[in-house]
Amino acid sequence: MIVHLASFVWKDGTSPEQVAGVTAALYEMAREVPQLRFYLCGENLRLRPAGADFGVLALVDDPAGLDAYLDGEAHQRVQREWLSTMVASRQAAQLSSDALSVTGDWLAGH
């Protein structure tokens, strides 16, 4: 499995309504991407100093799944309609983990 991590710092003036909107749009997008095995996004809890404003964790099976997710129309739509106007900076990393296993309805409640 590949773990995709992304963190975002919002532009000054980004509103709580925009953050709620992009969060909803990202979860809606996740439902449209069959390559996603798990998806989690949300505001930083700020339990430690510094850090980003928002984070994303996505699990896919392989590099082809990552490409399908990131390059797919659903992800590109969220980028165009939300993230392009909100993001001041973005960082991302991909990690390999064959030890992960995800079961259950991981989108329940979103």
From TrEMBL:
Pfam families named in the record: Dabb
Stress-response A/B barrel domain boundaries: 2-95
Q: What is this protein called?
A: Dabb family protein
Q: Which organism is it from?
A: Lysinimonas soli
